[in-house]
Amino acid sequence: MFDSFSSARISSLFGPHSRLWLLAAACCLPVGFGCSDSTMEFESNRVHAMALERSRDVPTDAALADVELVIAELFGTPEEPTWPSDHLTGEQLELVSLERLQQASGSVESDAENVHRGLYTEHCVICHGVSGSGTGPASMYQWPYPRDFRAGVFKWKSSERDAKPTRDDLRRLLENGIPGSPMPSFATVAPEDREALIDYLIYLSIRGEVERQLLAVAIDDLGYEETPPNDDLRLRLASSKESDPGKDEAGNIIFTDLNQSSRDEPQVDESDSVEIDVVSTEGELIAISVLQSVVGEWIETTVAPVPTEPIPGAADELHASIARGAKLFGGQIANCAGCHGPEGQGGMPLNDLDDWTKEFTTRIGITPTDADAVKPFRKAGALPPRIIQPRRLSGGVLRGGDEPETIFRRIQHGIAGTPMPGVDLSESAAGTTGLTPGDVWDLVHYVQSLVQPTPKPSVRVADDKNPLAAAETGVSS
């Protein structure tokens, strides 16, 4: 289906070790981009709106217009971001720091005390874009594309597949970069600046996911079509009490500011005035519920537990584990070889896409190679569809990390946003529909043996017959 894609050619020209994409991106940057005389704006997620419109057969312009207003009121602008504390509770209030958001946002500058501002513009916007869409000026020239934060889906993390990453996960990504991709290490950036970037990344992801969910709710549940629904169902946030006048039992407006009074309306003495509660509409309650739900997922995320690794007691036990892993690797249940090749060398034909691309193609009945069908989405900001390439394990690098526990989680939970599946992990499923924890550890040892000459278990392998065996095999503690 995707035979016309020139994935290999693009990958070789703009791969992670090529500087051609940097040169091309520099040529694409508008004059003054990120400087104080330019105004940055969050672009609407028109690609998602168009995908909803096609799949639901309902126009989305009215919904998009109201969602834009709600999102702007909740999250502010790239120059002046806000955190919607008025609508959050408990730990949600402290998920990000408004001070750090302000440090990361806006134009690039520093003060006399060497406090840097505009950190996201300086370090991230060229690839990830102003709104975190992954469509910055350099995005077209990278393989793989930069991450689109707005869907709330992250690949490299210690949490379960559908969970958000932990803050430590994001911290490690900034410190180490992503090997085998254009994502560099930011270890030379000051730790406090990295923390500000983490806050801003979380902010962009939450902002984008709330936008996406509100668009879907507007179409699916609130009755948005060519025009908005009635006022009670319309997605809007209530105005502040100071600017929204209350009404008496007869429906007459009560002016609490005497300057607003008229002879036709009753006046209220300021000394006798009573604070009037603004009644929330159904649309506002839904908007706040969506916000709290998305923020709550970031609060609730935890590190996925990993069963204790059965450390081989001797070198021959390690090699036996590797042999069992090799058999599982090519077996029908794990079937790793189906994508990664019989010996992890890659190169297997896989006509599949990542989830970000499927959203505007196969999931709504569009063939990725149908240029005419894809063209409207490209105009709305989508990047050209590309076939996803399973990782070459033999002699390669693992983008998400090569620690034993990390590889275990990759096998158990799969990789979010990609066709890489997880496995059913239980003793009862062994040999039928799933794997045992011991099976997965055998696979871990085999994968490590492919990536490097010998694997590295968590602790040193002992061999009573040959005390030097551990050092000779390269196994480290």
Task: Please characterize this protein's 3D structure.
This is Probable PbrT protein-possibly cytochrome c. Keywords: Heme, Iron, Metal-binding. GO terms for molecular function: electron transfer activity; heme binding; metal ion binding. By secondary structure, the chain is mainly α. It has two domains: about 5-220, no CATH class; about 315-350 and about 385-470, Cytochrome Bc1 Complex, Chain D, domain 2 (Orthogonal Bundle). The protein contains 17 helices and four strands. It has helices spanning about 5-15, 20-30, 45-55, 60-75, 100-105, 120-125, 125-130, 165-175, 190-220, 280-300, 315-330, 335-340, 355-360, 370-380, 405-415, 435-450, 470, and strands spanning about 110, 115, 245, 255. A two-stranded antiparallel sheet has the order 1-2. Strands 3-4 form a two-stranded antiparallel sheet. The longest helix is centred in the middle third of the chain and has 30 residues, at about 190-220. The two termini are about 45 Å apart.
Question: What tags apply to this protein structure?
Answer:
477 residues; mainly alpha; Cytochrome Bc1 Complex, Chain D, domain 2; two-stranded antiparallel ribbon; 4 strands; globular; disordered N terminus; disordered C terminus
